[in-house]
Structures
1.
Amino acid sequence: MDVTTDEIVDNNTHALEITGTGETIETDDNRSLNLDTYNMERSFSFWVRPNVIQRPLGVIFKEGGGIQNYAFLMGYGGVLLYQIADTPGRSGNCQAWSDFRLEEGRKYHIFGSHSLTGDDAGLREHRLWIDGVKQTDSSGNPMDSVDLTNFDSHSGDLAWGEPIVNLETGGTDIAYNGMEDTDISDFAIWTDNSGTPWRGYVKQEGITMLYRRGR
């Protein structure tokens, strides 16, 4: 694990550089994110540049573990997946995929979000945006079950590039590698459990602004 001085995002001269599947970095558990908390709204924003075509399944970022997690994953020649995995039997098991394969050597703005209080159209959805464009392919939407009033605490690691042998994906534990050669920059998280809309969920105009600022 290293830091590259390549400019991934405009006017930002440093980025996290993952140069092999055994490289990973973790942060401490946090009571506002994965400990002692219930998440009704959550959003993630970051820039990523895959420097090779990611063929095996790899972890860009994951929060949580085998039963409950958020994760950004890549594989199958560059398809990106953003997912939330909840306790089996609950309806909070959703995935959203990129509409295309990410190309090597190109930077992308990635934004993933879910709202249990309702988005612009009042839908409880789990969705992925790339370069400000909402991707069309998803599974598990709309999340309209009463058991989605909370997403329980999930004490697995908050980590970038970490291989894991039992990450729940769509109700099945799957083994993932780390990333082969990838740069990550400007990673940010919004989270909220107040039940008040828009505190942990970002509207389309905000997502577009984040993308335009980093081009």
2.
Amino acid sequence: MTKSGFKIIGFEQCDVFQLAPHPAALVPIDDADRSAIEQGIDEVGGLLNPLIVENAWHDSKDANEGRVRYVLDGCNRLEVIQRKAAAFHQGASVPCILVTADDPRAVALTCLMAKRKGSTGQRVLAHIEMHKAEVLTAYKGNGGRPEKTASREAVYTAEAIAERLKCSRDDVSKGIELMLELLNEKDAKRAEILKEARDSILCGGGSIRRWRPAVGGKLATKNRERADVDYGHLIKRGAVSLCNGLLHESECVGDVRELALEAWSKICDRLPSDFIEILIGSFASWRLSDQLRVEKTIKSVLAEK
């Protein structure tokens, strides 16, 4: 059994439709990484790197799929393979390393850290989440400052983690602050935004140093109430603008006139008859010559419909 709590049992070619991502093992990726996965699969015609699969069968959430094994690493590759196989209406098998695991999430995060270097934020958050209990014991929620203790949890202070990951103590502290706020947040709206920030960092799309301003900006946007729109007033203003424009209808010639007639036709298609009557009636206070010209133009548009 490894430190991450899993043991390799064997190797097997598994039917892709008898596999499903473990809910705790889903690690977000960005569009660039997803595109790279698809390109790599297309180039070699399948998977070269085996998926890590739990050696146990579970009832699928979809009753039509029967029993499945859970994928602990390679969930995004599995999704691409399944989609391509379904599109061609054919089965497919993929190489899988079968394991037993005490903590599927820890396995997923271990595999994430073992791959390409990734961003500092990815490595910090993955490490903190893998050792959440020890980090919490070391920090005690004390503003990100470690407890002065000689216990084994001392190796999970910000200084110790930064030394282990070869990164800044400030990056680790910000990662721990994010974890603590996620654990303690009671407001559902802010908790959702915090999770989005965490997922963005884990997939390499966000900065661990900028997560707090990013959360604050999104929260301010979501909290900003949209002003009520007075659509009646909006229609009135539009009608007045159209009427003013029609006073100079004779100047509308050529291609511009054709575009104007097309626009008018669309407007009249949407206007109820009583609106059109009111629109014509609103010209009563104008000079008679202007009123007649506007009425003639509107009626000509209606006649052309």
